[in-house]
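Hi U.,

Before I forget, here's the chain from the pilot set. I'm dumping it here mostly so it's searchable later in email.
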Amino acid sequence: MKKIVLIITSIVTLTVLVTGCATLFGPKTHPLAVSSEPHGAEVYVNGFKMGNTPVELSLKADKSYNIEFRKEGYESVTRIVNTKVGAGWVILDVLAGLVPVIIDASTGAWNQLDQDAVNAALVQQNE
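Structure:
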């Protein structure tokens, strides 16, 4: 019985040590609430239409995004959403050792979006 417990404990420990905390437990996508005034603007993310406001998007945090708002009769507005490193993941990785730091840093698993919501106030075009 002791041998089985030792084997299971060894496997769990080895798994944690050879993978990063963010890789194991972190979210694969991050929610981003997108809204505008007035509502109903088309939302484009990096040139691809993703819906109309208000909408909640689920984006990977491995790159920056250009969020464009378009509505007929209004000037388009662009917002930029960047990524940042989640300090909590870095601390956990450092406590676990060098290998998790390398894995999470190279995979970008400890990245997150720099904001949870984007809002745009659209201005009517002059005719």
